[in-house]
Every structure is written in structure tokens, then in C-alpha cells.
Design brief:
Helix content is 27%, strand content 17%. It contains eleven helices and 16 strands. It is of the alpha+beta class. Helix 3 runs parallel beside helix 8. The radius of gyration is 20 Å and the shape is globular.
Length: 403
């Protein structure tokens, strides 16, 4: 008899298997089999069958040098975990759109909040996730960063900690910020940037371990979507990893109060935010295109596949496959500008003045600093100060809907 965890994994992998062939890793001409990480978000209601509502593959991110050119069109980070969360937010926006367009309609996932549930500042969102739902996330690889450091060390011929570089006097580049990728094993429990080859341009995108740790406090909602939906019911219940990719020591250190999140134990904030650590479960099942499942000579895939209800996309370099990287026609439905526009469309249907005012900010940077997002901003600042120390923002938020 399969366990609940196996059912969740099965829901994600079956959904991926149902995608067209060109969404999947391929065998290159020289006979190398591509591999890629897979992540998915699954909703479970009571004893019903788990339903995969979003999934993604991917393992790349945008170099910090190119972030100012992205202008909300190019994704900064297309690791599988991050894309799956973005696709989940897209799914929630569409649910809200349908409810706003047809007030008498029903969603099994999202509901309109009653008037007595709302207040002008702290609980202003018109929607909430239904209370009887639980959210699960499956990842076919250990999240990069702190939760995978022991696994990374074990994979080295020599796991001796690499020497720490001298601290620079001026901090400008990713190397100078002190954000390491996969090296410097003597430093554990720290915020890291996305790992990359030594000859690759560096990024300031934080590791998936760090981003998931923060999501335990901010919920799975992005900033724009948190204007529509209350965060109170949008926290991850469990993260499921292959047993081969699970280090209990690393995961406790990365995500729990036994590690770097200790200062946040029992912490709550205004706006229905709280530190809600997820459970971590394991599975013996391996994804067919994992690094361990692919036979022979392996190479990483540069293709990202995205799926959620009503959306399927193939991405390369943070934009739609076959499009120029910084051209507006290459924009994914998951990019910051598309998300801003989609949320604004829902608010237009709702006609709520306060939300319309927030979404009319001239720049995305101003939107995120708006007073309606103050509670969320406070959460992020406190978590970065007390637990995820050394977090450096990536920037790239100076753009408008029309630019």
C-alpha cells in the first residue's frame, strides 16, 4: 500500500509524464543523456486523491550582470523549485480571476472572504485559500544551498573545506558580497547564491534552500499575489525529497528551529504571517530524468518546462524558447511583469480602490514598498536579520508595466 508521500510524488511525476515530448530532457547527438531537476506543488483535500496543480523543471539562473536588463520580462531564477512556486501563483491568480469575473462561481481551492474577515490594513485581501487544503512540494533533487551541502561534500574526491577568501574592503560583485555558491564547506548554515561552474558568470539569486526557508514565514505567495489572497492558509505542509537526496543534518540546519531558524520559533507577525516550518518526508522513488536515473554519460538540460492548469511553457534562459532573451515577446506568463499585469486585471474586475491604488504604482519597486505590503516587508526584513543573515537582494525591480 502506497503512503501519502508516494501518492504526492506519483501525482507530480504522472503529470510530468503527460507533457509533450519536447518538454522533456533529450539525448544529444553525441549520445549524452540530459538530466534535470523536477519540482511540483500538490494540493490535498481530506482523504481525496492528491492533485498536482503546478510543476516545473530547470536548474539555471540569470547572471547578476544581466539583471538590470531583465526589466520584469526575463526570469531571474528558473530553478525547478522557484518555477513551480511561480506557476502555483499563476494558478491562484487564475482562480481569483474566475471568481472576480463571475461572483457566483465556485473554486475548490480559493474562496471569497466574508466582510467580517477583512480589515483595511492587516487583513485586506479579498480571497483566501480554503481551510481544508494542505500543500505539499516534491523535489527530485535536494534544494541547492545549505540543505544540500553534505551531499555536495560527499560527492567530492576531497571533502576538505576549501580555504575562505580574504574579506574584501569594497563589496560590488557576487564574489565580494561573501555569498558563496557550493564551495567553502566549512561555512554551514549560511545564505548562499545559486551554484554555478567556476567559469560561469555569477548570480546574486539566493539558493533554493534559502528561498524555501523564507517561504516558511512569508507563505508561498509572491508579493503581488499576496495583495489578492491572505497568506494564512498558503504555507507548505510537507516537502518530499528522494531518500538519496535527504540529509537529516543539513535539512534541520537549513529549515528548522534546530538550525538557523531557531530565533523564529513561535514567531508571528501582523497580517496573518507566522513561522510555519514544513515537515520533510522522503520517498524511494526516483524521477526518470534525475541525475541518478540517467545512464551513461550525463549532461544538464538547459530547457525548463512549466505546467499548471491552463498553462504550459518551455523556457530557455528565462524566456520562452525560441525568443530573444530581452525582447518583450519572450516574456513568460510567470515573469514579474506578467504577474503584475495579471493581478491588476483581477483587481480591475473587483474594483477595490485601495488595491487599484497599490497596483497603479509607476514602478514594480514602488509596488513592493507600498503600505499594503508593509507587513510582508517587515517579515522579510526580520527573517533576514535574525535567521537568514547576509541576504543580499538581487535588484532588477526598476521597471514599469509599459516599459
Amino acid at each position: 500500500m502506497e503512503t501519502l508521500e508516494e501518492d504526492v510524488v506519483d501525482a507530480v511525476i504522472k503529470t510530468f509524464d503527460g507533457l509533450p515530448l519536447n518538454f522533456k530532457p533529450r539525448i544529444r547527438n553525441e549520445g549524452k543523456q540530459e538530466w534535470v531537476p523536477l519540482s511540483g506543488i500538490v494540493i490535498l483535500k481530506g482523504g481525496n486523491e492528491p492533485i498536482c496543480v503546478s510543476l516545473a523543471t530547470g536548474m539555471k539562473c540569470l547572471a547578476s550582470f544581466d539583471v538590470p536588463l531583465a526589466k520584469g520580462i526575463v526570469l531571474h531564477d528558473w530553478h525547478a523549485e522557484v518555477l513551480a512556486l511561480r506557476a502555483f501563483n499563476y494558478f491562484l491568480i487564475r482562480e481569483c480571476h474566475d471568481l472576480a469575473k463571475s461572483p457566483g462561481s465556485f473554486s475548490p481551492v480559493v474562496r471569497r472572504r466574508e466582510e467580517q474577515e477583512n480589515s483595511e490594513q492587516a487583513n485586506f485581501q479579498p480571497f483566501t485559500l480554503r481551510e481544508d487544503l494542505k500543500l505539499y512540494m516534491y523535489c527530485s533533487e535536494a534544494p541547492c544551498g545549505d540543505a544540500s551541502m553534505e551531499l555536495t561534500m560527499e560527492a567530492q574526491e576531497d571533502a576538505t573545506p576549501w580555504p575562505e577568501p580574504a574579506r574584501p574592503t569594497i563589496e560590488k560583485t557576487p564574489e565580494e558580497t561573501g555569498l558563496h555558491g557550493r564551495g567553502y564547506f566549512s561555512q554551514l548554515g549560511i545564505v548562499r547564491r545559486k551554484p554555478s561552474r567556476s567559469d560561469a558568470l555569477k548570480s546574486l539569486s539566493k539558493s533554493c534552500s534559502d528561498k524555501l526557508a523564507l517561504k516558511q514565514c512569508t507563505s508561498l505567495l509572491s508579493s503581488p499575489v499576496s495583495l489578492l489572497i491572505s497568506p494564512e492558509n498558503v504555507y507548505l505542509h510537507s516537502l518530499i525529497l528522494p531518500s538519496t537526496q535527504y540529509s537529516e543534518k543539513a535539512c534541520k540546519r537549513a529549515f528548522s528551529t534546530e538550525g538557523r531558524m531557531n530565533a523564529l520559533q513561535g514567531k508571528t507577525w501582523k497580517g496573518s504571517y507566522a513561522f510555519r516550518p514544513f515537515d520533510i518526508q522522503t520517498t524511494d522513488r526516483e524521477f526518470a530524468f534525475s541525475k541518478r536515473s540517467t545512464a551513461g554519460v550525463r549532461t544538464s538540460s538547459n530547457l525548463s518546462a512549466v505546467y499548471t492548469w491552463g498553462l504550459q511553457e518551455r523556457l530557455i534562459n528565462g524566456v520562452l524558447q525560441g525568443r530573444k532573451q530581452f525582447h518583450p515577446q519572450g516574456a513568460s506568463s510567470l515573469c514579474k511583469k506578467s504577474t503584475w499585469k495579471a493581478v491588476a486585471e483581477v483587481v480591475g474586475l473587483l474594483g477595490i480602490p485601495a488595491l487599484k491604488s497599490t497596483l497603479s504604482n509607476s514602478e514594480y519597486e514602488d509596488l513592493k514598498r507600498d503600505k499594503l505590503l508593509l507587513d510582508r516587508t517587515t517579515v522579510k526584513e526580520e527573517v533576514r536579520s535574525d535567521a537568514l543573515k547576509g541576504w543580499i537582494t538581487n535588484g532588477g525591480e526598476k521597471f514599469t508595466l509599459s516599459s
